[in-house]
Amino acid sequence: MALNCFQRAILLADDSSLCEVYYNLGHVGISIGDLQLAYQCFKIAISSNPNHAESFNNLGVLELRKANLE
Questions:
Q1: Is the pLDDT of residue 40 over 90?
Q2: CA spacing 20 to 30 A to 4: which of 22, 31, 47, 70?
């Protein structure tokens, strides 16, 4: 049910709030254990707003979990 709500939010979001929707969807991905979904959502959030520091931070945490220190 949550993913359907996020799909509707993505369709209704404007350019300024799209990164927040994908950021929140990334947290849903983390909480259900789907780290690939979370990684993709944070990348999309950064592509829609390159100054979204929270998404950069969470991408860094996911990269550390993959043992990628670069």
A1: yes
A2: 47
- CA dist., res. 9 & res. 38, Å (int): 17
Q: 48-62 in b/e burial notation, b at 16+ Cβ within 10 A?
A: bbeebeebeebbeeb
Number of other CB atoms surrounding residue 43 within 10 Å = 15
Beta strand segments in 1-70, E: none
Tokens of 18: 């799209």
pTM for the whole thing?
Answer: 0.85
* Residues whose CB falls within 8 Å of the CB of residue 61, separated by 6 or more in sequence, listed in order: none
Number of Cβ within a 10 Å radius of residue 9:
16
Roughly what angle, to the nearest 10 degrees, separates helices 53-65 and 35-48? 150
Helix (H, G, I), strand (E, B) or coil at 70: coil
